[in-house]
Amino acid sequence: MTSLDPRQELAKRLGLEHLPPVHFESAADVRTRLAANDYLSDDSIASVAFLADRLAKPVLVEGPAGTGKTALAKAVADAAGARLVRLQCYEGLDESKALYEWNYRKQLLRIQAGRTEGEAQESWGELEEDIFSGEFLLTRPLLEAISATDPVVLLIDEVDRVELETEALLLEILSEYQVSIPELGTVRAQQIPMVFLTSNNTRELSEALKRRCLYLYIGYPDVERERDIILARVPGIAEALAQQIAQVVRSLRSLDLKKAPSVSETLDWARTLVILGRDEIGAEETVATLHILLKYQSDIERATKEILGRAVNLA
Amino acid sequence: MLNVLADFVGELRAAGLPVSMSEHVDAARAMRVIDLGERRALRDALAATLVKDGDHLPVFYTAFDVFFADRAAPAAPEESRDGETPSGDAGAAGSGQSQGEGGGSSAPLSAEQLADLLYRALRDGDQSSLVRGARAAVSRYAGMEPGRPVGGTYYLYRTLRSLELDRLEARLTGEQADQADELAKRLAHDEARARIENLKRAVERAIREQLVQDRGANALAKSVRKPLPEDLDIMHANREELAQLERALRSLSRKLATRLARRRRRRRRGPVDLRHTVRRSLSTGGVPLDLRFKPPRPAKPEIVVIADVSGSVASFARFTLHLVHAISSQFSKVRSFVFVDGLDEVTDYFEGVDDPAVAVARINAEADVVAFDGHSDYGRALITFQEHFAKDITRRTTVLILGDARNNYHQAHAEVLADLRSRARNVFWLNPEPASYWNSGDSIVDQYERYCDRVVECRTLRQLEAFVGGLP
Description:
The complex is a heterodimer. Chain A is α/β, with parallel strands linked by helices. Chain A has three domains: 6-95 and 140-217, Rossmann fold (3-Layer(aba) Sandwich), CATH 3.40.50; 101-131, no CATH class; 223-304. Chain A contains 15 helices and nine strands. Chain A has helices spanning 6-14, 27-36, 43-55, 69-80, 95-98, 104-116, 124-131, 141-147, 164-176, 207-212, 223-233, 239-254, 263-275, 283-293, 297-307; strands spanning 59-62, 83-88, 100-102, 137-139, 152-157, 178-181, 185-188, 194-199, 214-217. Chain A has a five-stranded parallel β-sheet with strand order 2-5-8-1-9, sandwiched between helices. In chain A, strands 3-4 form a two-stranded antiparallel sheet. Chain A has a two-stranded antiparallel sheet with strand order 6-7. In chain A, a hairpin with a 3-residue loop joins strand 6 and strand 7. Chain A is elongated, with a radius of gyration of 25 Å. Residues 310-315 of chain A have low confidence and may be disordered. Chain B is an alpha/beta fold. Chain B has four domains: 2-72; 75-226, no CATH class; 239-266 and 299-469, von Willebrand factor, type A domain (Rossmann fold), CATH 3.40.50; 271-298, no CATH class. Chain B has helices at 2-14, 21-33, 39-50, 57-67, 69-72, 75-93, 96-102, 111-124, 127-142, 153-163, 165-174, 182-215, 217-224, 239-266, 274-281, 314-326, 356-366, 378-389, 414-423, 445-449, 461-469; strands at residues 302-308, 333-339, 343-345, 397-402, 426-431, 454-457. Chain B has a six-stranded mixed β-sheet. The longest helix of chain B has 34 residues, at 182-215. Residues 71-106 of chain B have low confidence and may be disordered. Chain A binds chain B through residues 6, 27, 43-44, 47-48, 50-51, 54-55, 57, 59-60, 62-63, 163, 201-204, 207, 210-211, 213-217, 219, 223, 244, 247-248, 250-251, 254, 258, 281-283, 286, 296, 298, 307-309, 311-312, and chain B through 18, 20, 22-23, 26, 29-30, 33-34, 40-41, 44-45, 47-49, 51-54, 57, 181-184, 186-187, 190-191, 194, 251, 254-255, 258-259, 262, 354-355.
């Protein structure tokens, strides 16, 4: 079999002189180094991050809001000692905001400067070559990540917000790690960036995009992991309290709520309880602080009724 | 290993997952860089490369358990086989049944010992003894007969019944029952339930392992294959599947609304605004170089839903009403009517309610739809509708009729439908029955079909989504 390692293959295609080193040794290595950056992963997260590095493929991360999709990309960047380049997607995002744009003011200045200097007129060909060079190019996040020489992690956040047509812009980068600029030629990656895309699943992403990515679904963590997350992120919290908080949140999530509490809201709640100086929580405190976890009045009423018994009356 | 992967991919495709060639290649590559001895790592690697939709993961896990049960974890079955040898031998000798029930002398664990082992494993969260206990429980209670082509649900039921989970759960909860606080009680209760669920999964897995050893992965995969939520037959879904459908519907309606809104917005321009164009043309010497357009006026359709909610098609009506109201912002107006042999308007139920599911539940309880015997009577329902509401149907209205058109041999009154069609923009009929059943027995689809723009087979969410997404 003559099949190359995927990284070698990609490096050859990009014309890199030497193979960029891998960021992580193993899935376990990913896990410990993410933990060192206060990001508690689980087996799937660590495995997929490791595979992304080894196979040089982008990762599409999906899951409910507030479960640490964006935080994962940040933590991976920190753990790998790479720079994070972030592209926040929104409706109406276009090429000039995502990829590159010609700095036409500077181009105009250049042309005018050429006139006033009074020398023999430059030929149009020379001028054109001059004003369509790298100097007049404004790099936007995607091009910046590709042309960077230092190690980078590219985060394309909330990719489900862009239109289907704009999504196609990403395809060349995701599969070939290159950007084609008509006036300039093709810009190839100088290293192999790790790429993370996050999506809140508000619309179906195209098959073409999904096919190019590894897929990672981050759901709500189980009780043990959530407790560990609380312990890691909220300084000065007692272990028993963290355990209790994690259990309450699990019970809340099992209810049919409009918006289940996310991990970040859990952390907010834990911080509040620490500030209030609690070592454990009872029914009353929970009701009184429920608005930190739940953001709809109907949800709060429902949770009050369900979990804390009918006796409690919401003031 | 590559052959197993190919079989596995084939099974995923058969279950309806769209696995492309390049994803298959990615999976093979991923397998080269991970430690194949670790089952969990293998599962994550395959999931990341082969599955690209969170809703498809449960189907993937089921298939994975079947295909990689014996191969990837060779150590575990080996160890358990020691424990199972006595009962296994007895089964081969033909007296497995009595052995299982007698609980007799040669079995390694008595019923009490087993219950105690499971209890302690659950209490301490000891996963490995839990797995051991689950295996012992299966060989003891399930009464598995080699060679029977079943999916294991029956064995699962038998095992769980014998384990008396309610008592086990009460015992787990009981430790903290002396807590006075409501919250603590509830938490203890939820914790116990989560652990029992864990036990159920372990038992299910143990049964699968046994079945795979018995019949091989490929044969078993066929009998445990579950359809994707969007391919479930709505009319024949059981309770668990209905819950799945409910979940799938939520994300589906959100996506559908986004898509419809996008489609509407894309038509950015209306017809040419002549006045404005001529005025602009003055600056170019009267040549209309720059065309001006009127702002677009998105024509949102009005929807009238008339749904049969009698027993046979009730769940279909519920899902469709739910879907239509969940995306009601995409229509200028939605009115809903439900009928069995009487007809009632239920539009109000959806007003001021955040979650259409709540309103749908209220309809079931409160709507006044039975006038006589409670058997569907399409003819009567149509006549009632014509009498009271036909005047509200305009050229902008799209009428959706939901039902199987099984009229219990009542009169069809198709002429009413003809009248409705002459007033409305479109009349569509959504039928949750397979098209091959139409017009058999008391189904009178063809009598109504004449007066509909289209009769659409809508057995699954996928078909429902395609229809609503394509509404003119």
